[in-house]
Amino acid sequence: MGGGYVILPLLQSELVDKKKWIDDNELCEFYALGQSVPGIIAANVSIFVGYKLRRTAGAISAVLGIVTPAFISIVLLAKILEEIVHLKFVQSIFWGVGIGVLILIFLAVKEIWKKSVVDKFSCWIFFITFILSACFKAPPAGLIILAIFIGLWLQFARKIERGEK
Amino acid sequence: MIYIKLFLEFFHIGLFSFGGGYATLPFLYHIADVQKWYTAKQLSDMIAVSSITPGPVGVNVATFAGFTTAGILGAFVATASVILPSLIIVVIISKLLEQFKHNKYVQSAIYTLKPAGCGLLAAVGVDMFVNNINLLGMILLAGLFFASLTEKRDPLFYLGVSAIVGLIAGFFNWTA
């Protein structure tokens, strides 16, 4: 339950302590890498672990293991909600819950901020993306691609500065 | 065909969202805007349910959005396509693990990507805030905010409290 950030202790007790599939160092490495590649962190970590154990087949089984319970519970819940969502008291609950979601998003921003905004430059990137997205409705994928190019360009400029080829 | 469109949209979410499950929200919000498969309000409901259902939020909310768009098959296509880029990229990186970790270009791109992902999510939060909040909502939000400052709480706490407030507010017709 919850986002990718809450699964670390769970992974540690299951994969490291009980099953002994990986050690603590590997878990930390996979967890850090899982945040550095696109996609859902929990799925990324599971794919790293699965691949380490049984190559591609392991990766596929691991991701199926992560996705299947989520898939079943959401489809069931969505079906039930379809039936009751028009009821007035359900609407009232969702009105309240919509406010709760704002807090969850705020907390997620805070959590990601701690790990991503580390200096002045990354702070600029944050605000520029924020403004382009909030005020100009720029498509998110476009902004992500722009950020990738800025990152690559930064490193390129650093190399030039040092006179390397 | 709707399933091909679903595949393309969710594959691109899996490919471009950086920062975990909640980082997929700006993309889902954008889809609500452009494709009109569901409304922003429906998306907010989906996020709430996804946050308290077992499983990673990102997977849950993708499954939910797929289901809302095109039923069970839609849920299947959305879930599979949001995960597929991860599977491909992580398997490739696992093969090249050492090069990947030490490549300066990769590190530099990650350094700029993460704050960008964060900025996108902040924009969704502000947009949702501006579009559907009234005075009571603001009071509730302020209360939840202070509760979040005192200690780390489960999503279930925030959603539970706000559900109860919503129920009471609905009874007195305060939700408009």
Descriptive key words:
heterodimer; A: 165 residues; mainly alpha; 81% helix; B: 176 residues; globular
Written overview of the protein:
The complex is a heterodimer of chains A (165) and B (176). Chain A contains six helices and no strands. Chain A is mostly helical and 165 residues long. Chain A has three domains: 1-84, no CATH class; 85-115; 117-165, no CATH class. The model of chain A has no long low-confidence stretch (mean pLDDT 91). Chain B has 176 residues and is mainly α. Chain B folds into two domains: 2-132, no CATH class; 133-176. Chain B has helices at residues 2-16, 25-34, 40-52, 57-95, 97-102, 104-131, 135-150, 155-171. In chain B, helix 1 (2-16) crosses helix 4 and helix 3 (40-52) packs across helix 4 (57-95). Chain B is globular. At the A-B interface, helix 2, helix 3, helix 4, helix 5 and helix 6 of A face helix 1, helix 2, helix 3, helix 4 and helix 6 of B.
Please render the helix and strand layout as text:
The complex is a heterodimer of chains A (165) and B (176).
Chain A lengths: L7 H11 L5 H13 L4 H44 L3 H29 L3 H15 L5 H22 L4
Chain B lengths: L1 H15 L8 H10 L5 H13 L4 H39 L1 H6 L1 H28 L3 H16 L4 H17 L5
Helix pairs in contact in B: 1-4, 3-4
- Can you tell me the residue ranges of chain A where pLDDT is under 50 for at least 5 consecutive residues? none
Shape of chain B: globular
Please give the domain count of chain A. 3
- What does the average pLDDT of chain A come to? 91
What class, by secondary structure content of chain A? mainly alpha
Q: Helix fraction of chain A?
A: over 70%
**Spans where pLDDT lies below 50 across 5 or more residues of chain B:** none
What is the overall silhouette of chain A? flat
Number of domains of chain B: 2
State Rg of chain B: 18 Å
Q: How can the largest sheet of chain A be summarized?
A: none
Q: Kindly state the number of beta strands of chain B.
A: 0
- End-to-end distance of chain B, in Å? 38 Å
Main sheet record of chain B: none
